[in-house]
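This section describes the prediction task in plain terms. A model, or a person checking by hand, is given the sequence of a single protein chain and must write out its three-dimensional structure as a string of tokens. No templates, partner chains or ligands are provided. The sample shown here is typical of the held-out split.
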Amino acid sequence: MAESPEKPAVADLEDIDRSDGRDVVELDSDYRKWRRIVRRVDIRLLPALGAIYAISGIDRTNLANAFVAGMGKDLGFTTGSRYSIAVCVFFITYFIFEIPSNIMLRKFGAARWLSFLAFAWGICVLGAGFTHSWKAIVALRVLLGIFEAGFIPGCAYLISCWYERYQMQTRISIFFSLSLLASAFGNILAYGLIHMDGVGGLAGWRWVYIIEGLITIVLAGLGYIFIIDFPDKIHLARWPYFTPEEVRIVQARIEADRGDAEFDPITFMKTLRTLCKWQLWIYALLFLTSGVGVYAFAYFLQIIVKGMGYTTSNTFLLCAPPNIAAIPYVIIVSKVADRLHRRGVVVAFQALTAFAGLMLVEYCKNNGVRYFGTFLGIAGCAGNVPASLAYQANNIRGQSTRAVASGLQVCFGAIGGVITANVFMQREAPKYPTGIWVAAACQILTVVLVCVLTIFHKWANGAADKGRRVNEGMEGFRYTY
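The expected answer:
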């Protein structure tokens, strides 16, 4: 039976389902084994996924570094809205291919599919280093969107199948924090690569694409080796990392936590029923609102900082600290959220943090204060990526539902990217008042959406406590709010 959000996830032996007739000693042994298994999954799965996700963040946003480093002038991106077009087209295909990719993930297996996606987009990034037209960059970013589309929802889906509900936000935050680290050092890496200007007869911005593309291809190969599949799909001859008994323990824990350890095939009717759940669209909107802020800083932070009067070299160096500072913040807040079994209040708090940061960036005259605003803005927006993913994952059941729901949620992140690309207009650079206010408005919308979900979740849990309702088709299931 699933536990109430008011209790730790099977933290006490009294909370464990004894319907299978096993005694306390055996259950205690399983619990200790489970803890060891979780640590091994942490070591094996999170670094592998996090490393590839980290480079994906660099690969999709290195357009900004290349632009500042000379690509803008060399390929004519300073004319009209060409830069915004290049930012925008990525998200169109990114949106379209999210759910189909999650279906393919189950068909081909996590290691094969996720590493293939990384390899394919690495080729696209590498190719960008040899282009001579802004239109070619746009075409490659269309392909980049296709291949990157399935990675984040695939990772969220895979992680949700290995961990209990109140272990999830911390794990997603660790996985996501590696991308923040990469974003920070990606700017420093770009700064170093730009100094290769003239090596091999190539401009410095071309080396940004070439080296980062090669790194992605290498990580894709390592991902194939280290990424572990879904618990129900592990072929023990190929993955001796877990014994049959350990796989049984994992599945038993997940079944006790939320009753969806076994995969149920994805069908057209199940997909339709899943898409008819109105709550999923609210979770998706929460990912959209955080995505607008995340992509605003990812694509335009360099331009905003450079507009404060700093040199190109200093701009690259100054863009690293806000991302680095966000890492401990995101992990600590996630651990607190998991320990307290709360999601909505954490999402709302971080949205208000991001709002404060955006207002400092837009309205303060002192550049030091504006720069501090980027710390708050990045921390709040970045923190809500794992928070909103965990918020949804905690409140749905069924693996087919998770496959569709995670794809839908990250689809809306792509819409957030499209919005960002269109409201941060080149003619308003480097302050971007329209873009900043749209990103700020999204944070206020986040708070409103959290209030709606919280009211519903409290009502539904109360009705379930009185026996008038069964949440998510499972007796004892309680929503996390």
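For orientation: The two ends are 19 Å apart (CA to CA).
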